[in-house]
Amino acid sequence: MKVMVFHIGADRYALPLWAVARVLPAAALKAIPLAPDYVAGLLDLHGAPVPVIDLSALAGAPSEQLWYDSRILLVDYPLAEGAADGATRPLGLLAEHVIGVDTIDSAALADAGVAGAPFLGQVAADGAGMLQLVSLAQLLSADVRAQLFPATGAPA
């Protein structure tokens, strides 16, 4: 399976490559009042507001500065887990130290075996150490999803 690899602190994480629509340089964001700390703000993407989540802050790691290899991974976020209509909205994921595309053996993926953040999925080991997948479907709680993607259409 092809994955986009990045760091949260010293640890490596990945998103399935099929989930990444675009990779953008880190950009200035507009703050969203009363949003959780891990909501970095709104990205102006060709005139359309796109909410951006700081993956380091979401994982409880201290947010560092923006690095030369910090990127916004633009994904098509599923609005409801298991929704039959497959409705998605653009969501930016601010990731530090984006390494790039790698291949992992799907058969080597294993359950992490620990309770923790629901958005963290299976792990695989390779020559560089452990790599943990991020689950888009579990990324946001229902209340944060409702705040970022209100039923009226445009992000708040």
Automatic annotation (TrEMBL):
SUPFAM superfamilies: CheW-like (SSF50341). InterPro entries: CheW, CheW-like_dom_sf, CheW-lke_dom. Residues 1-145 form the CheW-like domain. PROSITE patterns: CHEW (PS50851). Pfam families: CheW. This is Chemotaxis protein CheW.
